[in-house]
Amino acid sequence: MPNERPWLTVLLWVVLSIATLFPIYWLFVISVKPAVELFSTPSLFLDTIYWKNYVKVIGDDTLRRYMMNSIIISSGNAVLVTVLAFMACYALSRYDLAGKENIFFWTITNRMAPAAVFLLPFFLLFTQVFAIGDWKLYDTRIGMILLYCTFNLPFAIWTLRPTIDGIPKELDEAATVDGATTWQVITEVIFPLARPGLAVTLILTWVFAWNEFLLAATLTSFNARTITTGLSEYVTTTGTEWGTMASISIITLIPALIIFSVVQRHIVAGLTFGAVKE
Amino acid sequence: MAEVTVRKVEKRYGNVPVIHGVDVDIADGEFVVLVGPSGCGKSTLLRMIAGLEAISGGTVSIGGRVVNEIPPKDRDIAMVFQSYALYPHKTVAENMGFSLKIKGRPKAEIEAKVKRAADILDLGKLLGRYPRQLSGGQRQRVAMGRAIVRDPQVFLFDEPLSNLDAKLRVAMRVEIKELHQRLGTTIVYVTHDQIEAMTMADKIVVMKDGRVEQVGKPLDLYDNPGNVFVAGFIGSPAMNFIKGKIDTRDGQQIFVSNSGSVLPLAGARAQPGQPVIYGIRPEHIDIGPGGLPARVSVLEPTGSETQVFAKLGEDSIDAIVKDRLTVRPGEDLMLRIDPRHAHIFDAKTSARV
User: Fold this and answer.
1) What is the residue range of B250's domain?
2) I want to staple B117 with a disulfide (CB 3.0 to 4.6 A). Which of A172, B88, B95, B145 is the partner?
3) Using a CB-CB distance cutoff of 8 angstroms, which residues of chain B are in contact with residue A170?
């Protein structure tokens, strides 16, 4: 049916876009104003641009380390979780595992309690149990990657299962008869068709790790500290450096936008159309 | 090419047996159709030959080699699925060449074999398309092309035409038969459609409830069905069955139905008084003087012939005649039964007498 009032649709999208993007615009405005101006003449409009907040942030070695930690931990976790969830979902979908529906259900139970509940056990594990000599899992990137797996993996398995279940089993059988090994079935048939689900899983798990604050603040101190926890260092007893925090936040958006734009291209519907006659 | 031998093959899901010690011999180059109603175990048997289902008992041999423990990829078979099962992210050419690609064959060889199969199936112009861009018939041909490219010892077809419309099904039936004549490869073909079985097979295996009911050439099964099930399954429209017993009149054996109708016989081997089932195909009944009076219930003219549904006393009977009839439902006509084509089955065992 043709749209009889296209201007209404356009208006709706403009309003929604403004509502969505306004906080980011406001953040940007704060990031390019000196502290004095922020509180003396608060305004949403830009007369001049003050880049010194950005110069300060980019020139700070510690902040650069935090940013790199965040990128490595989030990306490492997202890739590891997505690969493990993909394998788990393939097994749950294709094999007659004893009690597999119970396994599937119980994986999600650690998302049923607030993350804070797990803080103390994790702290003890990271400082007392997973320690070899002087080396501890505490304040390491690998520690944070594994930690986020605990929360992201169940979520990823639940997100990805319908995608794998939705790929007709006849395709596995056809590939098997065509001479493919199980590994070739997974890489040549299942993986390409699961791309949209994998992309969604990758983005959501990446965002969780990128934004996570509580666990990172507790289980890191300097070496593996992430940018979200780094932000909190600008809230001090003598005041809050709003301009610096805003500029860090804007910089923090850039890797996220890059990840989204790269991965989003794989989120397309109807990949399995034409595979089997329903 | 190779022969396929199925010996006392059983299939159980837990404690539930679904195939009960089936024996089937398929000669090299033979076109064998496994036919039967839904749930008879024909697809399960085919999947056991393919290696997609584990065998609970007995042996399956391909080319003289027992393949029970051999994975599908090493059985040198190709299978065409009911649902086509094309790889949706691959083009027609990639679908057809997939088996050779994963074998690591050279690109030139893959292209040549795909082209040869595409020529056979008239798919040359579609090689760059994706499955979603094809019609049902084209997808089915691609699925066959994928099988041809492998040049296997045995082709397995699992109800490949079930999802096609009636016209296309007839066309594809001819194509598959031509393909067999051209390639000469052993084919095991599963269908629930007895017309497909009759028109395509060198040999038909009729199955019911996980057992083989009868094996034979299509016309042998049509002319000499071994029991009531095969008699009713093979032939369209289905054979008429009337319950009654054998009697003797004027020194001649006759059949008397439970409702008292007397039908002619030509040398049945039943004993007088024995409860039997009288079978006669609709095409072996015609209309004319000297027949048995029957009341017309429904007429179904199709142009080339007319199917008559009628009542012979209390018994329902239908006939196929070439004539265009002017009789109306509720009126009587005379049905002439050709006794040479009458089949007599034991009422207790259902076996042919």
Assistant:
1) 240-346
2) B145
3) 81, 83, 85
**Interchain CB distance below 8 Å, A270 and B132:** yes
Residues B275 and B147 in one domain: no
Q: Give yes or no for A179 touching B (CB within 8 A).
A: yes
* Residues B49 and B144 occupy one common structural domain: yes
Is residue A273 situated within a structural domain?
A: no
Identify how many contiguous H helices and E strands chain B contains and give both numbers. Answer: 8, 19
Interface predicted TM-score (ipTM) of this complex, two decimals: 0.83
Displacement of CA A274 from its chain's centroid (Å): 32
Nearest to B86 by CA among A186, A162, A277, A180: A277
A270 in a domain, yes or no?
A: no
Q: Are residues B15 and B40 in the same domain?
A: yes
Residue B43 has pLDDT above 70, yes or no: yes
Q: At what angle are helices B107-121 and B166-183 packed, to 10 degrees? A: 120
Closest CA to A264 of A207, A220, A226: A207
Mean pLDDT to the nearest integer, B41-58 = 96
Put simply, whether A184 touches B (Cβ < 8 Å) is yes
Whether residue A269 lies inside any domain: the answer is no
Distance from CA of B231 to the nearest CA of A (A): 32
Q: Model-level pTM?
A: 0.83
Residues B214 and B127 placed together within one structural domain of the fold: yes
